[in-house]
Fold this sequence. Notes:
Blueprint: H1 31-34, H2 37-42, E1 47-48, E2 52-57, E3 64-66, E4 69-71, H3 78-89, E5 91-92, E6 97-109, E7 112-123, E8 126-140, H4 144-150, E9 156-162, H5 169-188, E10 196-202, E11 205-210, H6 213-227, E12 230-240, E13 246-256, E14 263-267, E15 273-277, E16 283-286, E17 292-294, E18 305-310, E19 315-324, E20 327-331, E21 338-342, E22 353-359, E23 362-365
Parallel strand pairs: 2-8, 9-13
Antiparallel strand pairs: 1-5, 3-4, 6-7, 7-8, 9-11, 10-11, 12-13, 14-15, 14-18, 15-16, 16-17, 19-20, 19-22, 20-21, 22-23
Helix pairs in contact: 5-6
Amino acid sequence: MSSSSSGEFCPRCGDPVEPRAEPLPGDPSGRQATLCDACYFADFDLVDAPETLDVRICPRCGAVHRGERWVDVGAEDYTDVAVEATREALGVHVDAREVSWLVDPEQVDENTIAMHCHFTGIVRETAVEADHDVRVRFSRETCGRCSRIAGDYYAAVVQVRGDDRTPTDAEVAGAVGIAESYVDERADAGDRDAFVSEIDEHADGVDIKLSETGLGRAVADRIRRRFGGSVSDSETLVTEDEDGNEAYRVTYAVRLPPYPAGTVIQPADDDPVLVRSARGNLKGQYLTTGERYEADREDGLAPEARRLGHADDAGEATVVTVEDEHAVQVLDPETYEATTAARPSYFDPEADTVPVLRSRAGLHVLPEDVDDLGGA
């Protein structure tokens, strides 16, 4: 037998093996590297692919079961799921590079898609091809999340109420929006157990039922930070699981402040005030002078005061004349009579119209940004 210039022979067939160029990253080593091309490709499989794949999919939300959990894949149809399942099941030979594949899905029946796959790659500087058919079979199974939703499951309730008043429509809508936005945020972060079970609006406010106690606490805190007030919680024993562990349902009671932002009040022995903040202690602005108002710390959010109205009830009044540095005359939007009102510092003497509020204490000129306070 003649020898090769390199002195190397194929350990399987004994044929001489030509010396190879500098190995590329991923090239075979050891015994595999010394095989001749004929012997190497005799046992070579470019791709390792299963003949069948079984995929569990939730018919309600389209989630796919992978490993030990359900995964939201966002697929538009089962073909997309079949392509991804096939891709994940493939094993490409370690010696191959520049591997690509084409797939031609065939809908066999309602629950089966045949994936006709064609692969190409480079091995030992040789172009190689391979064809594989993978049969993807679907079974429908409701995921745990959808089962709980269908069963009206909830672990927490956020109750939004007003302190000695009914929450405004803006507050109710804002609280619901906060809950839905936060749940969407958690779901986008991969928390499949995060969902709103029920929203019950009624005369006293709104009850928001949530799937997790942590969601309830987070939503309640966000509502309090948005509108002010306080949060308290209480637990109710619901049941025991199969291991004897007690399961509780938690109620988070959000008590909105008595005077939300946008409310016009008259503190005891004082001038009317437009409330601007109901966080911490009450803060606002005098409607007579425009100066800053802040309730005493011991009074907090509920100083002794009478409620005169709300910025949502304001109307537009025509400015008749500026009487002096303390008074302005406007046309009452209800009676159309010229009426004198206090001239606060925020009043613009060049304005043709101003927002005003009529109350038992008279007619009050409001600041131009008053519309921003109604849902604050």
